[in-house]
């Protein structure tokens, strides 16, 4: 609602003000407050009966006589966004800006009112955890703090309210559990799903993948080292894998002790490289990051051998050059980790089709990756006199730790230790060769095999989306792709439902990819609104829906309160944030924050 | 409920009923007082204060005071509020008295916007200061590709000559550009290009979204 004017008047001024407001022929309602409804001296019979003014008093809230019908009322658009990660925030940002552009256009002289159909926008961002930001908080590696700067941009949305738009945050509310999707759709004009890919993963489908202790999903490992409240249990598994074989009692080892455990990461995306780098750096390399202290206590000085294994060649690897370069520079940055790549594997991967994939502007990123890897392989070649003398050999035998990238190696089974049938001991790989057209090469098995020792296996072959509770009946979810079926962000089998982010397009891309993605979805929302405006049937746009109960934000709060859902608002989240940064919690001056590791602790900090 | 422009005429006892008024017209108290405060202070300041002094401190006043004390997230002193469509952005860069040159941005929707760019600021700072539609997720530290801009061949070549020692861009920028959507041979990151006098009248293109972006059998982007 747009408040056009408030006149503070006393006594006889009130009468004058009423006449003034009414005479302006404004399509408005004029309400007189703070006077007794029974005080007839303010009622003026000279003001025409059909005027838009009504008397209201503090004690009588809704008994107002309506002298105008409602055809000229212009409601505000109510929107719910499910998920407070990058896609949810970008969608909020662009939808708000698109709606305001249309509203402002309508308000200029010459436009007929209600051209757009909405007078503003209210967005409620609903998040399952008490804390927002999704993978920016729980996915981005702790040694990439500048990537987390985007949080400031998102927070600014919540701290910039104005007369035409408002954005609210509701943390610790699980859509599907605390409130059904259907209920949400009935409360709001538009619902946008932005809940990402959280609990499922793609599977290798090989023996030993599920049955052996010490085989984890990279996704779980990442969530653990980032302090996600639902993955604390991963710590004891990692601890066992890294330290069980050590000669002495783990507790007596100091924090710089290097584990002799062999870790095999299966997959070659940036998540795989992150896992390798975090394991290699260990506590000394991560002490000034926001890695939680209990995690560092388990990692200690890091791991001596990490192999990152991919079934295709280096040109097909999903990693980007920034993450790759970081690995090549670990040694020179003081982390004492050698980076190893085998020249012959690069050669085998350089098929004619791979050469095709390097061409043109689109091939530029891969060309640079190829060069970097070739240089690394060359530097590691011990027959290269020059590099040995220069001391830049990355196969320096004095490095206590190493990260190795292996290509054209496809895991065919995961096997237990000889000494213990329940724990992982090795990954048996088959050598592959590439066959097929450019951009469509497949890894074909050869008969050659190689066994990699493995005390911990991290399977990093991709996230997968899951349906929300209650979605299965409506068949909205495409199980094979792991996304909610949609057309440019509009959900196919639903009315006012949209998607953005990974649950729309699959688990690909970086934070910035969501910019274009969200704009695409917002376009679909705007088209949908234009279509609806032309319908004679109104949306659930008034602040009451059919059953007479509240809708939009008020409806959400009423529902949550009556169901005792302990939601966290933005101000309360800010308390969590400042508590995490409190000096007394930090292990060093440069540590950005010491995260709370349980929802319980977050809520205590929020509600203090 | 009221879903149209509303005019309130408040009698002399209104401040006792702020919360009741708010619930009657269906807005939250602090939003109501915020709006009211702004309106009152812009019109009849005198009337408001004289009113307030007559009675004990009203909830209106304490609420207004509370609003002002909310901590500012962004401590950058050059932080400016854009018009209502833009959110708070980080700026930094040279101050308002810096000489400027005109620059044109070709927007994703194919319109062109001409603005005054301050000498010495980066294109990202220019964009944020003047409301050009450019993201800067990492806040200008070359850790993302969201400020990707496409330059004319002429501008690109001259920059390369003047600003880069070995005839190629810094490793960091090149690495980030590799991830930019719609990468071209004359692409740069806006946060790495500083405005210079010779750029006067130059045209800077922002990458367009194509509708086919998600329909194409694109090779999956890394993450």
Describe the model.
The complex is a heterodimer of chains A (608) and B (223). Chain A is α/β, with parallel strands linked by helices and 608 residues long. Chain A is 33% helix and 19% strand. Chain A has 19 helices and 23 strands. In chain A, the strands form seven sheets. Chain A has a six-stranded parallel sheet with strand order 9-17-10-11-13-12. A five-stranded parallel sheet of chain A has the order 6-5-4-7-23, sandwiched between helices. In chain A, strand 21 and strand 22 (490-491) form a beta hairpin. Chain B has 223 residues and is of the alpha+beta class. Chain B has helices at residues 18-24, 29-42, 45-54, 59-68, 123-130, 153-163, 171-177; strands at residues 6-10, 100-106, 112-118, 148-150, 187-189, 203-205. In chain B, the strands form two sheets. Chain B has a three-stranded mixed sheet with strand order 3-2-6, with helices on one face. Chain B has a two-stranded antiparallel ribbon with strand order 4-5. In chain B, strand 2 and strand 3 form a beta hairpin. The two termini of chain B are 48 Å apart. Residues 43-88 and 211-221 of chain B have low confidence and may be disordered. Chains A and B meet through strand 1, helix 1, strand 2, helix 2 and helix 4 of A and strand 1, helix 1, helix 2, helix 3 and helix 7 of B.
């Amino acid at each position: 609602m747009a408040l056009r004017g408030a006149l503070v008047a006393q006594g006889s001024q009130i009468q004058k003000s009423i006449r003034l407001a009414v005479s302006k022929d404004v399509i408005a309602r004029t309400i007189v407050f703070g006077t007794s409804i029974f005080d007839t001296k303010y009622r003026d019979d000279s003001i025409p009966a059909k005027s838009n003014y009504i008397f209201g008093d503090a004690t009588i809230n809704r008994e107002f006589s309506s002298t105008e019908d409602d055809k000229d009322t212009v409601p505000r658009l109510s929107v719910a966004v499910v998920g407070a990660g990058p896609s949810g925030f970008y969608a909020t940002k662009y939808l708000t800006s698109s709606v305001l552009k249309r509203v402002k256009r309508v308000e200029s002289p010459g436009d007929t009112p209600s051209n757009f159909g909405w007078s503003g926008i209210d967005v409620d961002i609903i998040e399952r955890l008490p804390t927002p930001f999704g993978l920016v908080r729980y996915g981005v590696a702790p040694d990439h703090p500048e990537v987390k700067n985007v949080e400031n941009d998102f927070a600014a949305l919540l701290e910039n309210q104005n007369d035409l738009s408002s954005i609210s945050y509701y943390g610790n509310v699980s859509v599907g559990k605390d409130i059904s999707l259907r209920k949400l759709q009935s409360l709001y004009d538009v619902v946008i799903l932005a809940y990402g890919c959280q609990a499922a993963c793609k599977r290798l489908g090989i023996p030993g993948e599920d049955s052996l202790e010490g085989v984890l999903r990279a996704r779980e490992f990442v969530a653990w080292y980032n302090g996600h409240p639902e993955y604390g249990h991963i710590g004891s598994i990692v601890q066992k894998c890294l330290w069980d074989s050590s000669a002495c009692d783990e507790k007596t080892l100091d924090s710089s002790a290097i584990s002799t455990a062999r870790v095999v990461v299966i997959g070659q995306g940036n998540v795989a490289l992150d896992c390798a780098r975090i394991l290699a750096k260990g506590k000394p390399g991560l002490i000034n990051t926001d890695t939680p202290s209990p995690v560092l206590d388990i990692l200690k000085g890091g791991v001596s051998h990490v192999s990152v294994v991919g079934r295709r060649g280096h040109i097909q690897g999903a990693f980007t050059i920034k993450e790759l370069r970081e690995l090549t520079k670990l040694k020179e940055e003081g982390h004492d980790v050698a980076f190893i790549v085998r020249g012959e594997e690069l050669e085998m991967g350089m098929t004619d089709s791979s050469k095709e994939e390097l061409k043109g502007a689109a091939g530029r990123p891969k060309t640079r990756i190829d060069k970097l890897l070739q240089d690394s392989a060359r530097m590691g070649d011990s027959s290269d006199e020059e590099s040995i003398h220069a001391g830049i050999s990355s196969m320096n035998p004095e490095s206590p730790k190493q990260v190795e990238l292996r290509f054209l190696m496809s895991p065919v089974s995961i096997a237990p230790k000889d000494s213990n049938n329940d724990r992982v001991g090795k990954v048996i790989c088959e050598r592959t060769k590439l066959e097929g057209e450019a951009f469509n090469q497949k890894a074909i098995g050869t008969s050659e095999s190689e066994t990699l020792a493995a005390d911990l296996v991290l399977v990093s072959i991709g996230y997968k989306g899951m349906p929300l509770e209650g979605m299965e009946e409506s068949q909205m979810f495409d199980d094979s792709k792991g996304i909610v079926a949609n057309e440019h962000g509009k959900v196919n089998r639903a009315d006012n439902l949209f998607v953005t982010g990974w649950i729309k397009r699959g688990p690909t891309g970086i934070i910035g990819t969501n910019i274009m993605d969200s704009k695409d979805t917002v376009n679909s929302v705007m088209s949908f609104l234009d279509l609806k405006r032309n319908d004679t049937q109104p949306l659930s746009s008034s602040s009451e829906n059919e059953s007479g109960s509240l809708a939009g934000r008020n409806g959400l709060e009423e529902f949550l309160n009556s169901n005792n859902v302990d939601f966290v608002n933005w101000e309360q989240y800010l308390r969590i944030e400042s508590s995490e940064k409190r000096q007394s919690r930090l292990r060093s001056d440069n540590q950005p924050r010491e995260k709370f590791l349980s929802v319980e602790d977050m809520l205590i900090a929020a509600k203090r | 409920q009221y879903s149209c422009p509303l005019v309130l005429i408040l009698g002399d006892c209104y401040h006792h009923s702020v919360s009741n008024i708010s619930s009657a017209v269906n807005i939250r108290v602090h939003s109501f007082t915020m709006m009211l405060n702004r309106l009152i202070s812009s019109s009849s300041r005198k009337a408001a204060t004289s009113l307030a002094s007559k009675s004990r401190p009203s909830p209106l006043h304490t609420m207004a005071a509370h609003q002002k004390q909310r901590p500012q997230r962004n401590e950058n002193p050059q932080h400016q509020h854009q018009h209502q469509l833009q959110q708070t952005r980080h700026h930094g860069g040279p101050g308002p008295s810096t000489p400027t040159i005109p620059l044109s941005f070709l927007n994703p929707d194919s319109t062109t916007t001409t603005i005054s760019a301050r000498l010495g600021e980066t294109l990202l700072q220019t964009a944020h200061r003047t409301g050009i539609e450019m993201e800067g997720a990492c806040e200008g530290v070359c850790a993302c590709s969201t400020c990707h801009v496409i330059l004319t061949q002429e501008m690109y070549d001259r920059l390369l000559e003047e600003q880069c020692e070995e005839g190629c861009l810094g490793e960091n920028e090149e690495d980030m550009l590799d991830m930019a959507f719609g990468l071209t041979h004359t692409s740069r990151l806006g946060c790495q290009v500083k405005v210079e006098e010779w750029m006067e009248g130059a045209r800077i293109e922002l990458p367009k979204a194509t509708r086919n972006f998600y329909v194409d059998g694109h090779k999956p982007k890394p993450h």
